[in-house]
Amino acid sequence: MFDHTKDNNYRKLSQISFPPSYAPEASIQPKSALAPSNNNEVHNNDTMLPISPALAPSNSNNNSNVHNKESIVFNVKSYGAVGNGVADDTQAIKMAWDAACLVDSAVVLLPSHQSFMIQSTIFTGPCKPGLTLQIDGTLMPPDGPKSWAKGISKKQWLVFYRLNGMSMQGSGLVDGRGEKWWALPCKPHNKGANKKSPPGPCDSPVAIRFFMSSNITVRGIKIKNSPQFHFRFDGCHDVHIEYININSPALSPNTDGIHIENSNNVKIYNSLVSNGDDCVSIGAGSFNIEIRNITCGPSHGISIGSLGMRNSQACVSNITVKDSEIKHSDNGLRIKTWQGGFGGVSKVTFNNIRMDTVRNPLIIDQYYCNTKNCPNQTSAVYISNIVYANIKGTYDVRSPPMHLACSDYLPCTNLTFSDVELYPAQGQRILNPFCWNAYGSLKTLTIPPVFCLVEGDPDSLPSNDINRC
């Protein structure tokens, strides 16, 4: 095993990855051969390639990989990782990453049946093409705010920065250990009778954040109990997320499953999300987002926004959500904006969505406010060209099935409804939709009928505010 005590570079590594100055010890093998062999050898074109025992994957079929190219595997155990869930494995994982970063088609392997504790860390690129982080064991942060390293930001745990062509995958688990963060007295559900936050910081870390990265694949990962958002993508493009499982309690605060901000060409397919906030939330500067075959809930649904906070610009376009199910959630498909913002949300399609006991299945809220003191303002984020098609199921009768609250100053336009059928989950009473300044058309009769939707277009729109994206 690699002896880190004899290498002076070990103690010099910071929490930001820098290229290593030493040649790594590693094993060359096909990525598809990460499943173990009884004699620690793999076949490659009928040639036997020896694998160092320290670098060989652990004896579990869970280590198999979908890639077929030759790869060099950097097992974190050979860099000093203990893997007992108690010892701090930060430096060992960082050293394996830094070594793999210099090699084409490299794999950083966290082997199965072991638990690796890592402090808040930034993994930086650029790296050689084809880098894979293979999580077959359990990866976890320190246990709660009191265990967090002093002087380290509590806003993020694992950050992947300036990477191109990286994959994160595996049969293991990322355990965010969020329970002690959710219990902080400053959290909304823990505030006292006066509903005021006690003094002191209330930061909680995002579990996994990709920042200014491209051609990113996240596949097969299971992640649970993040202190805050589970995944966050900022300034990224060409992202493919598939077959992931996100699971946190329904009352865990601000635990969005996947948050997208200032990113484009993002695809989220074939995944399960159950959490305490939005399954997927789409923030400002995002476009060309496709969400397909997602099972969402309990949760707060799939949201665009909130947008336009503090009079800011927010532009979102070309969003598709289809072939999905939302169940036992506070919201279904939501667009929410603050008064005073500017920009626009346009070309959004919600198609073939099943609702199961959802409190607010379809909601546009241009009066979004998370306090009691949000003043009325004239400017607004313009919402137009929104399609609701083939949306069927049941709603929680505490709220109407459709709530379209659009700006007094800048109405919503070109809202289109077809094949929408929403029935009360209990009882026979069908609630009427709510509309305010909502303009559009009914392609088919909806259940319940959206008679409050105004046909056609407003007589006039403030042109200066509808072309600011």
Automatic annotation (TrEMBL):
One Pfam family it belongs to: Glyco_hydro_28
Record organism: Lithospermum erythrorhizon (Purple gromwell)
Protein name in UniProt: Polygalacturonase
Gene3D superfamilies: Single-stranded right-handed beta-helix, Pectin lyase-like
Upper lineage: Eukaryota, Viridiplantae, Streptophyta, Embryophyta, Tracheophyta
The keyword Transferase appears for this protein: no
Keyword field contains Lipoprotein: no
InterPro entries in alphabetical order: Glyco_hydro_28 (IPR000743), PbH1 (IPR006626), Pectin_lyas_fold (IPR012334), Pectin_lyase_fold/virulence (IPR011050)
Spans annotated as Disordered: 23-66
PANTHER family assigned: PTHR31375
